[in-house]
Amino acid sequence: MKKLGLALGGGGLRGLSHIGVLQVLEKNRIPVHWLAGASSGSIIAALWSAGMSATAIEQMVLRLTPAQYLDYNISGFIKALLSLAPQDAFQGFIQGRRLQNLVFKATQGKYLNKVRLPLGIVSCDINTGQQVLFTNQKPSLFDPSIAVINGALLSDAVRSSVSIPGTFCPYLFQGMNLVDGGVIDNVPVNILRMMQADYIMAVSLDKADFSAPSQGFVDVVSRSINILTYRTSAAAKQMYADLILRPEAGEASLHDISLAAEIIASGRVEMERNLPRLLSGLKKQAGNIRAFKHI
């Protein structure tokens, strides 16, 4: 059988649907051999690759309150509003330290090179526009245009990848000003291709249209990035993904943690619906068409 590479895309709180996808894979004993994540997908990728089961991740999430992962940069906003600080001092409404500490504790402070499978977490240097990849794989596997970082904590990688511009403050790391991986690669199937995954399954939370109006500044910024990245990620998914899952997670703001159980369930439903296709695809032998697809 082919081996599975899994790409977990960004989508704010809707990224919790990735937990449901992993639960179904675990239940059916389908191993994941390569894993890549961007933005909220990077959180689930980091926790799971560090050794947490999908059920353990769900239990942790269901106990969370917004105050445990959102630390609003109120003082920075007030200072900027009153011109008490330089204009460039205010860079986001959420500081990101609480989420980073949460991931650090849940992963027991693990470094990238201590996780159990090939992993890639995508970010972007907002100063240069360069794609940045946190990974435990050799830099030679990847396109030379990508800045590859091997020696970092999982929590550093996640903090970098979730930094939605204008919402989260960018993360300063090794001289780079890092922002949300979704800006440059929201569903990192291309990273799995470079890792030479046999069979690539993408979990996409991108949306081209929305059923409800945006609510507040944070939602406006998040939705704007979602719309901007939709078409670019769609092309990559169609080119490199063997199977694309699209959980019906609905609308959710970053503070809507009360919807967590419902969002996780949407991932289970979508994975169970596509389970026959996945099993069939994994059983097929690689042929000339597949080889050509990855050139």
Count of helical stretches: 12
| Structural classification | alpha/beta
The low-pLDDT segments are 287-295
Q: How much helical structure, as a percent, in the residues?
A: 40-55%
Rg on CA atoms, Å: 18 Å
Listing every helix as H and every strand as E from the N terminus to the C terminus, the arrangement reads EHEHHHHEHEEEHEEEHHEHEHH
Q: Which of globular, elongated, flat, extended, rod-shaped describes the shape?
A: globular
Mean pLDDT: 86
Strand content: 15-25%
State the total count of DSSP E strands: 11
Largest sheet: 9 strands, mixed
Distance between the termini: 21 Å
Note down, in words, how this protein is organized.
- The protein has 295 residues and is an alpha/beta fold.
- Helix content is 42%, strand content 17%.
- The strands form 2 sheets. Strands 1, 2, 4, 5, 6, 8, 9, 10 and 11 form a 9-stranded mixed sheet that branches.
- The model is unreliable at 287-295 (pLDDT under 50).
Can you tag this structure with a few keywords?
alpha/beta, two-stranded parallel ribbon, globular, 12 helices, 11 strands, 295 residues
Q: In a few lines, what is going on in this structure?
A:
The protein has 295 residues and is α/β, with parallel strands linked by helices. The protein contains 12 helices and 11 strands.
Give the topology:
Elements: E1 4-8, H1 17-27, E2 32-38, H2 40-49, H3 54-62, H4 66-69, H5 74-81, E3 92-94, H6 97-106, E4 119-125, E5 130-135, E6 147-149, H7 154-161, E7 166-168, E8 171-173, E9 176-180, H8 182-185, H9 189-194, E10 199-203, H10 216-240, E11 243-245, H11 260-283, H12 288-293
Parallel strand pairs: 1-2, 1-10, 2-4, 3-7, 5-6, 10-11
Antiparallel strand pairs: 4-5, 4-9, 8-9
Helix pairs in contact: 1-3, 1-11, 2-7, 6-7
